[in-house]
Amino acid sequence: MKNQNKKTAFFPALLAAVSLFALSGCGYVSYFQRGMWQEFPGIFTAWEPADLDLYRRLLPKQFEMPARPVVALFLTDYVKVVPYPMSPYLEAAVALRCKFKGEEGWHVLTMPVTKKVPMWGGHYYGFPKYIADEITLTRAGNGWAGKVKSQGEVRISLEFTPGGVRELKPYEREFLDGKTPHFGDPIFQLVPYNQGPTVKRVLMKEVIPAEWKAEPGMVKITISTKDPWSGLIPPETLAPGLFQVFKGGNKLVGKKVS
């Protein structure tokens, strides 16, 4: 009987030890302590839309026009993400400034990624993620080049060259110096994505303090004419932007607001 009791007590202890090892090895402990996104470099830029009527049509009817319409683009290489089955992946996005119930934020129009797990996770929050043929972020001389290829052609291209920044317009200084490069403002998305009727308010929450290193420069933006938002930005627009490197710990927090 004593031996049986020892065996009965042994197996739960063994299971707990194995579970702790598995969770730690898969990154769950790191996730709770440091967040999901822990390190990434990327290109960010923002531009005034060339066509305000198109801008309004691209915003879902639930959202109002913001005080100043702005198109934001980024391309990022998430080199350190947890927990399993998350793994390093690349992502790009085109987002519009918007207003919902009096609060300004962003609405993401498109968000190509390179892995299925972040795509599925993004759909939960209403992000219109899809698997691209290829997303790359590579050195190009003394700058960086980011490209999204889908259906056999380049859909988004961001070419960053450091320095040479012209005098910034007030809105450019506001967005490049403020929360915009870090997407610190709320993001409003429809759930199910691209359909609704539910609206989710999503925030990027810091688990530990973030360290941002940002190098200013100019970004040449190219968007495929096959995409409906291409009319927002003239071909090969040269816009002020940043090459950023993030280290820290962020996670998404979302809630239904309609």
Question: What this model shows, in words?
Answer:
Strands 1, 2, 3, 4, 5, 6, 7, 8, 9, 10, 11 and 12 form a twelve-stranded mixed β-sheet that branches. The chain is 22% helix and 48% strand. The termini are far apart. The chain has helices spanning 2-26, 28-34, 52-58, 116-125, 170-177; strands at 37-47, 71-78, 80-81, 89-100, 103-113, 129-131, 134-140, 143-150, 153-162, 187-191, 198-223, 237-256. The chain is an alpha+beta fold and 258 residues long. The chain is built from five helices and twelve strands. Residues 1-25 have low confidence and may be disordered. β7 and β8 form a beta hairpin. It folds into two domains: 1-34; 36-256, Acetoacetate decarboxylase-like, CATH 2.40.400.
List its traits:
258 residues, alpha+beta, Acetoacetate decarboxylase-like, 12-stranded mixed sheet, 22% helix, globular
- List the total number of helices: 5
What percent strand? over 45%
Secondary-structure element order, as H and E? HHEHEEEEHEEEEHEEE
Stretches where pLDDT falls below 50 for ≥5 residues?
A: 1-25
CATH superfamily of the largest domain: Acetoacetate decarboxylase-like
> Mean of the pLDDT scores?
88
DSSP helix fraction:
10-25%
For the record, give the distance between the C-alpha atoms at the N and C termini, rounded to a whole number: 60 Å
Largest sheet: 12 strands, mixed
Tell me the radius of gyration: 21 Å
Overall 3D shape: globular
Number of strands: 12
CATH fold-level label of the largest domain = Acetoacetate decarboxylase-like
